[in-house]
Amino acid sequence: MTRTNLLSPGPRTAPIEAPTTGGPLVASYRDLDTGCRFLVARPVQQPTLWRAYLAGAQQSYRKHDVESVLEYDQVVDGRSTAMFFAAVAPDGSVVGGMRVQGPYREVAQAHAIAEWGGAEGSDELEREIRTRLSAGVVEMKTGWVDDLFPGRDALTNAMARIFVHTLTLMDVRYALGTVARHARRRWQTTGGTVSEDVCPVAYPDARYQTVPMWWDRETFADLSAAHQLPHIVYEAAQLSATDAGQLETIAPVAA
């Protein structure tokens, strides 16, 4: 795999036991600001960790009255998820995460198409996805952070870096995310750009104006905020351990 040159709510989920034996990880790295360890895995290889991540997402989305966005029944089997990131706090609890869909072979696979549902801007969104498919497109879904985590702000910064690390791990050029317009500045700190040609859509309902954002493997470093770049580089160095075969396996357990 070609590596990018990075220099050019509510109760927490069940604790995850310290790494011992079990299914393999895709990757692993630690965030210095929060002390959280980010475990990257495939649902089929880490089913208990997967369920803990989804349980946290369900609690968080329910607390904010957007549980329908999770589409739990459609995603729980893990078949639509290429891999997922679970943020594990020093106390062993899962306090956030995000999952990855793709790489896509055709435009219709993108969940964002359903979110626009033929509304104004949907044609342009389809065009943007179509023109990027040959270079590799993944879509980031089901991001959440535990509202009660003491380092929530720093953890949200770390979540924004997941988009960048996914580009490397999936070896694609583009990552797509649909985000609430009021939160776009947070995601822009790692080089995400809002599509100015796609009209915002009321998704999941009229309380939100959702916009598509793109991360480009060739330009994110130039667009990222200065405070994020050292973290990106540090975490990317840990991710490179995957090639060296330095990742252990984990065995999460239910409460």
Verbal overview:
It contains nine helices and eight strands. The longest helix is centred in the middle third of the chain and has 19 residues. The chain has an eight-stranded mixed sheet, with helices on both faces. The N terminus and C terminus are likely disordered. It is an alpha+beta fold and 255 residues long. The protein has one domain: Aminopeptidase, CATH 3.40.630.30. 32% of the residues lie in helices and 19% in strands. Strand 1 and strand 2 form a beta hairpin.
How many E-type strands?
8
- Give the domain tally: 1
Order of helices and strands: EEHHHEEHHEHEHEEHH
CATH architecture: 3-Layer(aba) Sandwich
Let me know the largest β-sheet: 8 strands, mixed
Which band does the percent of strand residues land in?
A: 15-25%
Tell me the CATH superfamily. Gcn5-related N-acetyltransferase (GNAT)
Give the CATH level 1 class.
Alpha Beta
Features:
single chain; 255 residues; alpha+beta; Aminopeptidase; 8 strands; 32% helix; disordered N terminus
